[in-house]
Design the sequence.
């Protein structure tokens, strides 16, 4: 993460609109998976798979005591020979039902996603999107969207960090609860630390 992104993340810690926006979106995400008790499906585009968001949501599920936050990563190029957690293909979206939540992370062209997302929405699935544009059919289908304009200095990868941290913010377990600002402060410290010395 470069110096500009770190500076913007510090600005978020000070309480800009992004802190509010990511908390609101993450609250909808958390509320959807907890209230419905269904699965969380995480889908990217054929060119972009949200691996890091999946990993961070798994961590937040454990830290916050909200297991429903752990997603199933749906991969466009999944193969039956892949490990089970990586072998879920797009056909899973077509079998999604009411009570499940579909979180779509879509930088760029969303056209390849539209038919499957539309099918899921018609089946009663809650559709949430993290997108780089507000002017597309995918955003129109979503129950809730968080848009990171392509011109914004705060990019989609950073916003995914913020959303995952905020999603675990209000977990029910006092023992594992960590304040949102504390987690973001640790993230800033991690990304600004000098690289480890070579072996």
Sequence:
């Amino acid at each position: 993460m470069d110096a500009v992104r770190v500076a913007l993340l510090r600005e978020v810690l000070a309480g800009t609109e992004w802190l509010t926006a990511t908390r609101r979106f993450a609250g909808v995400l958390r509320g959807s998976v907890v209230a419905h008790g269904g699965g969380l499906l995480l889908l990217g585009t054929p060119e972009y798979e949200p691996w890091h968001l999946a990993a961070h949501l798994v961590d937040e599920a454990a830290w916050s005591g909200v297991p429903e936050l752990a997603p199933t990563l749906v991969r466009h190029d999944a193969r039956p020979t892949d490990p089970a957690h990586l072998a879920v293909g797009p056909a899973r979206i077509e079998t999604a039902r009411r009570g499940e939540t579909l979180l779509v992370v879509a930088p760029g062209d969303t056209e390849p996603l539209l038919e499957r997302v539309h099918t899921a929405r018609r089946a009663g699935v809650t559709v949430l999107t993290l997108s780089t544009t507000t002017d597309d059919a995918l955003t129109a289908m979503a129950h809730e969207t968080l848009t990171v304009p392509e011109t914004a200095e705060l990019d989609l990868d950073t916003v995914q960090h913020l959303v995952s941290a905020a999603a675990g913010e209000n977990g029910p377990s006092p023992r594992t609860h960590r304040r949102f600002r504390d987690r973001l402060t640790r993230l800033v410290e991690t990304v600004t630390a000098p690289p480890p010395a070579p072996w």
